[in-house]
Specification:
Blueprint lengths: L4 E11 L3 E2 L2 E2 H11 L4 E6 L2 E2 L7 E2 L10 E8 L1 H14 L4 E9 L13
Antiparallel strand pairs: 1-7, 1-8, 2-3, 4-7, 5-6
Amino acid sequence: MKLEGKAKMLRIHFGEDDKWQGKPLYEAIVMKCRELDIAGATVLRGIEGYGASTLIRRRHLLRGSSDAPIMVAVIDTEDKISALLPALDQMVDEGLIAMSEVEVIRYVHQDGARSQM
């Protein structure tokens, strides 16, 4: 599959301690994206941030996680992103989902290159 031109990007913001069915929410989102054959999803851990609750979330090096801010970026066609939204509606209890239009310069899906999980 080759993806170039206009696409949609979702940025899903929540806390590292958030869970979905007993597993980390970021892991569940990535697995759902893979299940839907979405072009790409990347999990980023922030240093510090806050959202609607105004609770400052930060990661402490000495104490491990203290609910650090997490962002999952997802990019694909509008149709594929639209298919993901109902699942995210169920999975993300508290957080922010932002969608924007992006221009994809190049993405090539190589057959047989998918990792087995």
